[in-house]
Amino acid sequence: MGALAACIIKGIERVTPILKFDLQRLEVEIHGVRQDTPPKMESIQYTIKVTSEESDHRLALLHDNVRKFGTVFNTIAPGTELTGTLIRA
Hints:
InterPro entries: KH_dom-like_a/b (IPR015946), OsmC/Ohr_fam (IPR003718), OsmC/Ohrsf (IPR036102). By secondary structure, the protein is of the alpha+beta class. The chain contains three helices and three strands. The protein starts with a helix and ends with a strand.
């Protein structure tokens, strides 16, 4: 889950200059459910909280970018129920 949070943060740091996205603060909360036998993550839920004056459309674009281009995100997604939101803090 730490790798997923780092992937989300790094992805946002990478894309904000490209999109000329004004971002003052970023926070990621992650909660997961682990299956014991066989060991794996059953589900992971995340919330990305951003402080920004950007429009809701631009926030959605940022979230789409995280889901589309995150290496760890896309490694986890096929085998785990991975859901989340990006909200304005």
